[in-house]
Design goal:
Layout (H helix, E strand, L loop, with lengths): L1 H18 L3 E12 L5 E16 L2 E14 L6 E13 L5 E12 L7 E11 L3 E15 L4 E17 L1
Amino acid sequence: MKKLLVLGAFALLGGAAQAQEGFKIGGHIGVPVSDASDVSSFTLGVDAAYMWNITKGLDLGVTTGYSHFFGKDHFDDFGFIPVAVSGKYKFAGAPIFVGLDLGYGISTKDGVDGGFYAQPKFGYQMKKGELYLGYQSISNRRDYGWYRHNWNVGAINLGYNFFLK
């Protein structure tokens, strides 16, 4: 099932990449927070999205990418592939925007569960790209009847996306 979701995400964005209308690609670097800060020292990743302009100032689309968390001490590296919808609002008269990605984070490591994915962003828009600060979160809650397990993998990221038109 995990492989099917990954394949679907890349197939969806692969088709969008050919049209290149509203396509953006970039990368991010971040500091792990929440439960991730106990096992990871920093994170690097790539971002890709295809956005449609819905109305003046509002874009909606789909996004994916990969975030790699580098393990610290005796912990292994792990990563997530988000499959999400994306929204972005650009303020009139100012080169700033707010955005939100919501979906599912697919784990690339056996033994690490995926979960609900959310990433609110605040950024600065330029003609050929955007610089953003975001809080990436993948959360999961397991209820085993007699035992509940909650975890949250998070990171504060600084990223840049190039517009490809």
